[in-house]
Amino acid sequence: MIQMKLFIRTVSIAALLIVAMQSAGAQDADYSRKGADTCLACHDTEKVLALFRGKHAVPSDPRGPFGHGQLQCEACHGPGDTHAGRVRRGQERTPIAVIFGADSDTPIEEQNGACLNCHKSDVGFSWHTGAHPSDEVACADCHSSHTATDAVQQTSTQPEVCFNCHQMQRSETRKAFAHPILEGKMDCMGCHNMHGDSVAAQLARANVNDTCQQCHAEKRGPYLWEHAPVSEDCGLCHAPHGSSHPGMLTKRAPLLCQSCHSQSGHPSVSQDADGLAAGMPSQFLLGQSCTNCHSQVHGSNHPSGSKLMR
Amino acid sequence: MMKRNLILTLFIGAAALAPAAHGQAVDTSEWACEYCPFEDGNRADFELGAMNVSEDSAYFGDATGYDEEGAYAIVDGNGSYANEGYRLSWVAEDLAYDSRAIELEGASPGSFDFNLAYRELPRRQFNTTATVFEQTAGDALSLPSSWVRAGLTSGMTELDSSLVASNIESDRSVFDLGAGFILADRWRISADYRRHEREGSRIGGGASFSQSSLLPMPFDYVTDEVDFGIRYGADNGFVALAWYLSDFGNDNAALTWEQPYSFDPAIGNDTYALAQAPDSRFQQMSLQAGYSFTEQKTVLSVSAAIGEIEQDNSFLPYTITSSIASSPLPRASLDGSIDTTNFAVAVTSKIFSKARIKLRYRYDERDNQTAQDLWNRVIVDTFASTDMEMNLPYSFERSTLNLSADYDLFDTVRVSAGYDRKEVDRDYQEVASQTEDSGWGRLRWRPTPALELDIRGGASERDIDSYNEVFAATLDQNPLMRKYNLAYRFREFGDVSLSFSGEKFSVTLNALLAEDTYNQSQLGILSGEELRVAADLSWTISEKASAYLTAGLEDMESEQAGSEIFFTPDWHAMHDDDFTTIGAGFRVRDIAEKVDLHFDYIRSDGTSVITVDSAVGGPSEFPELTSVLDYLRFGLSYQQSERFELNLNLRYQRFEAEDWALEGVAPATIPQVLSLGAQPYDDDVFIVGIGFRYRIGADTE
After folding, report:
1. In a designed cystine with A296, which of A104, A202, A300, B74 is the match (CB 3.0 to 4.6 A)?
2. Which among A6, A24, A264 is the nearest to B566, CB-wise?
3. A99 to chain B nearest CA, in Å?
4. What range defines the domain where residue A228 resides?
5. What is the number of domains present in chain A?
């Protein structure tokens, strides 16, 4: 009940904080006379024309740049009349108002503003408070509009786009045990919301566990006998981007388990190399180590499962 | 009533955002777009071919589906259709393998869109495993009729003759159907349904008295997920309400197995049971809203979600061994319920042209409402315990406050500073209240859009109200143990990033160093250190050719202590993980306007060294745990005509691991564990594929 009240209150506060908006109309100054035809008279390369295979150049989309009455190329690149105008001999052509890309002189805020003119609510306003705009990441650093398919929106190609900046994560995915990112079967967006900020690490769901349990729902419980770190944060034992240890564990069992378990008897006994297969093979060390017996490490719903063995 | 309030609130929010008509002052009446090559009609690529895989490989068959030696068909395709009002696109990948995927997307732009997909993801864990257990039902494993029980694996005389190869593998299929509608200019409603089915086996330990059997545990999971959302977006604000459902079902609520060891015959039953993952349901209602004041100089974003996880599977009995007297269960099913609450608010403001501040607060709560009872377990289906135990439904509240400010010292230099505070309160754990305070500073220098240097450093202190040793004693823990996620910790961290992006070359270098000290811990983790370095180089050789080089290095060390005498520390262990990776490749296209080439190579080396020094056994170093991955891919496309293309793909993949946990561990190697004999990976695969691509549609007409 308290929870619901809190939720309602939050919703109400959000609504009350929002006051009537003012809409800025497009300026009529400096736009070209013939729109895209003006631009395509010069810019007719394969790269530019690929725009027409994508979602931005759909004349039947009333909200798209090429919808009826919309500003076509200039919807994104800004007014182009000056750029398209005659240039005297020896004079440099005035650049178009908004040029996208890493080597552009257009301020990133301005580049992104051109995209956000239409995509504000797609992106969500938490974009503005997130790490990407703080780090001056431009929309065009990740997205390509002049293509049939935007690489960052395809599962097999998206990770490489993200890895252009997140190189340490690229390294991790090449470890011996990792999600199938290298194989092109999983993308970053499966776990992360690149435009969001309401969850730490820009996760796709409300916290780490909710995110992992989208695919690993069997770990969710609740169980009669819970394992405390499992109920709190999968990342306490697992390295989600990849690990050199099976199960993407952060370190080897039994040392991983012994980081927390010190009960008298076998949990507190050190396991050394004498317990390897060539010596005196130890059931606490070899095979699945601790989970040879405590196999229900994510929790047990068995009345006799308090030690996570049932 | 509450639902009405919610809906009312949503509409109030929407009304507050109600737009003025989007002004459109530009005269576009003569913008005919005569040169615009809009998509119209069909285009599609179909690829047919064959591929040969040189060896069986669980490692490389994992996620890809080509886990067995032999020939596989190549059947791929993609296409699109567009007319004045509709667009449709489809992709079919790997149709002949167990990683097949078919996706279809369609839209009437500006009105609605939909997607339909079916994907498979194979999990191939081990193909070196063998078992004596036979699956007689989805939830039962039995021993061969000729099985002779023994106290230790070495005495199991029928073991060798009873072993049957049994791969540890499973298959996941995902069906996905989604649609979105634009109800009015600024309203969008969307729904997505996904069904995940997973079936196969995994390794699970089945404990007996003081022994165990590694079982090929069969499982059969189904998860249904639904996302439903409605969103209102305006130029300076938006409101979105969403509902999420995840409904998990398991066809095998339990697993029974015939245990292979001999005990006192008086105990009787030789069939044991454990509980498998219970059915559960998670529902969550969430709201997000955002508003930008004064031309985005100040932006506020709010999100809130409430959810509930329910689980009410019937319990198994304390034991299925009828000869053991056990108490009646306190209740017949869990009737478990967890309430979740998540809340976040953030505001960022460009207070003046050179400065921006940001404030963010997040709250995350798990309130486990599951009732507590006293339970009198039967230890591994063998002995009734003399102790009563109470279940501990863990709950926590976690909140984080972040404050930061950026200031543009010069046009090219930005300095930032921040303070973060995290508070965690937990139930039924050794530490009830924990705080973490962090401070950091950052300097960014960007002399040109192409060059950037970014340096950050800081420190954090995680403190606790007290470590409750009395409570720890109720869990039989050594009172000196400090669990690493609960313990006091001081962390220092720093990272540096340098990037240059030129016309021909771009270079990026990142390095990170973090050091943790747990200087109030005597047992458990004592210290940790993490060093990561990554570098990229890309070279645009020409308009048609490019090359790249990537490299990464990691060194992660930790030290921990334990106590065999259940008092002060008498053993220490060091865990040192080193990892290096390098990748290189090139792309060349349109050689003689006919040929495209690409080449990629990745090598990764992982090494882990563990040393243990104990008062009893003295110093001991384990053999290195190593993993070496080579991944080489070469592709050549020859465009015979606008319609026909020949594709040649060569892949060489090698993965070799040295892992003392598996090396030489045959089913009977460990006297008290009947294992599956899984061996470290030593996979070496060469793949040759030839495909013919046929193209129809716009470009070829």
Report:
1. A300
2. A264
3. 13
4. 221-292
5. 2
